TrEMBL record:
Catalytic activity: L-threonyl-[protein] + FAD = FMN-L-threonyl-[protein] + AMP + H(+)
Top-rank taxon, per record: Bacteria
UniProt enzyme class: transferase
PANTHER family referenced in this protein's UniProt entry, alphabetically: FAD:PROTEIN FMN TRANSFERASE, THIAMINE BIOSYNTHESIS LIPOPROTEIN APBE
EC nos: 2.7.1.180
GO molecular function: metal ion binding; transferase activity
Cofactor(s) the record lists: Mg(2+)
Protein name listed in UniProt: FAD:protein FMN transferase
Keywords tagged on the record: FAD, Flavoprotein, Lipoprotein, Magnesium, Metal-binding, Transferase
Xref: InterPro entries: ApbE, ApbE-like_sf
Length: 336
């Protein structure tokens, strides 16, 4: 996903963090831009140090290592806030979005940083695994949203601690990028007084302007099926956009091609027929969660989203045949 501006030209900076490209497009002077860049680089490094599943010294790795004993672990305020959010969205999505997919991620082969995997190009081939292999992990996941079963995690807000059922492995990659980007955008706007800007973290972005309608940002979304035959875009002054898909982050396993969106009902990479979903709306975290949920569950998740969120949220969906579906009028296709 790329971004541009129609009226005012912002200062621009790009760097790598959290295994993705981070882009800052800010309307400000050079001094403010320098401070913003320093803040952003330090912030995403801190987020990765807390939430990375692949850093052995991260807070998340420390929590996951206690899963065998089931002992409570003291956690940071950052971890507490994100875990609270994951439990909320797990409930609102009917359990399709879940933090308890770390074991299934490992089983699918995503047990190290993505650049170290045996990656494949854009492919519609899906992993054809035996879902019964993952029954134990799926039972743990279902405990979180089936009222007849106990949650695999006890989050004690007062004590600021977490306790996992033995064997449970957390993965917070489905929400952390949006959460971190939303936080950074809020700080840049409110604390640093940057009146207009856009922060884009690998396709999860938040934009704001001075309230007078300027600048207007052009948000481009890649069509993974059509490729260079056209661009899907929308114009936006303020708000958030998040894109999730199954074709971009794939790797090869002994059973075929796998991707990172785990269906909590099977414990395997999803096979909904949706290859990409982009959700736009006021809140980036909600956009990120629902884009992933729709990719995993398909039409049922779309219906759930539209019934729970206000009309200010819309979705752009691409299926395996390359068919586009829009739930709002904001998205346009530019043909070449």
């Amino acid at each position: 996903m790329t971004s541009g501006v129609e009226v005012m030209k912002p200062m621009y900076y790009r760097f790598r963090a959290m295994n993705t490209d981070i882009e800052l497009s800010l309307v400000c002077d050079g001094y403010a831009m320098s401070e913003a860049v320093e803040l952003a680089v330090d912030w995403y490094e801190e987020v990765e140090q807390v939430f990375s599943r692949f850093r052995p010294d991260s807070e998340l790795s420390r929590i996951n290592r206690t899963a065998g004993s089931g002992a409570p672990v003291m956690i940071s305020s950052m971890m507490r806030d994100v875990l609270q959010l994951t439990l909320w969205y797990q409930q609102t999505t009917g359990g399709i979005f879940s933090p308890f997919v770390g074991g299934s991620m490992n089983k699918a082969g995503y047990d190290r940083s993505f650049e170290l995997l045996s990656r494949v190009g854009m492919s519609r081939e899906l992993l054809d695994d035996d879902i019964h292999d993952n029954v134990e992990q799926v039972v743990d996941i279902k405990r979180a949203y089936d009222g007849r079963m106990q949650s695999p995690m006890v989050l004690d807000i007062a004590m600021q601690s977490v306790q996992l059922v033995p064997g449970t492995q957390l993965d917070l990659g489905g929400i952390v990028k949006g959460w971190a980007t939303a936080k950074l955008s809020q700080w840049l706007c409110m604390r640093y007084g940057i009146r207009a800007g856009l922060v884009n973290a690998g396709g999860d972005l938040h934009a704001w302007n001075d309230g007078n309608g300027e600048p207007i940002w052009r948000i481009d979304v890649q069509d993974p099926i059509a490729g260079d035959d056209g661009t899907i875009y929308r114009m936006m002054g303020q708000g958030a956009v998040a894109t999730s898909g199954t074709l971009g982050r794939q790797w090869r396993t002994g059973q075929g091609v796998a991707h990172h969106l785990i269906d909590t009902r099977t414990g395997c990479p999803s096979r909904s027929g949706i290859v990409q979903c982009t959700v736009s709306g006021p809140d980036l975290i909600a956009c990120e969660v629902w884009a992933k949920t729709i990719c995993i569950q398909g039409e049922a998740a779309l219906q759930r989203m539209t019934s729970q969120l206000p009309p200010s949220y819309d979705a752009l969906i691409i299926d395996q045949q390359g068919m586009l579906r829009y739930t709002g009028p904001a998205w346009l296709k530019e043909e070449y």
